[in-house]
Amino acid sequence: MEFFKDLSLINLILITFALSVIFMWLGLLIGRQHLKKKKDPEKGYGSIITSQLTIVAFMIAFIFGMASSRFEKRRSVILDQANSIGTTYLRTDLLPEPQRTEMKRLLRDYVNEYAGVYEKRIKLEDGIARTDVLLDKMWDISSQYAGSQTSNVAIGIYIQSLNETIDFHTKQLSVSVYQKIPDEVWLTLYLLAAMSMFATGFYAGVSGGTFGIPGILLAFTFTLMISTISDLDRGSEGIFRIKNRPFFELQKKINSEVE
What we know:
This protein has nine helices and no strands.
């Protein structure tokens, strides 16, 4: 179980904002206590706060780059995968009966499983297990027939497209399910941000200032950036959702032709 991946986007936003405010508030309280003991406001903290916030900004930019790159990769893979399945479906016409009908039905079920996962009608774990089984069946049927048709060029072309479909299935799982921003990276970012929020509040306290609207805006800004990165990393909820239209158009076509 990965905490940040399993946490809903709305809960992530609420937790991030609450932690930001809490750490700034704690820093403010300790800063005020420090000011009472020292009597005079401390100087020289401003440059330290600036350096800490710069480090956090650099970390955010680094993680944002990771998330946006993977978002674009997932979108590209979906299109390529849909094209590959469509090509395999068309090339099943090169097969004789009963292999042709069986392969068309398996491809129909395969696409329907993917569409069900995209529409959240089917759990991700169940969809992965079923699509793996369907691909194994497709390969067994195709390889057994191809073994008896070693000199048939048309069958070789069909096998090539089926191989590509299997490869894109693996690639899709890799970029959409397994390649997420690691929890260790998230924890590092939150630790740096917590220290910066605390230091900001502390600086306000030793300077005789208050929390005020600027503190709320800083917490909101950090929360907004974190939610944007997490949204891009997920690609299935929030604002930045990957469009699955190519898959649904393919599903409609296959379902209309295969009984």
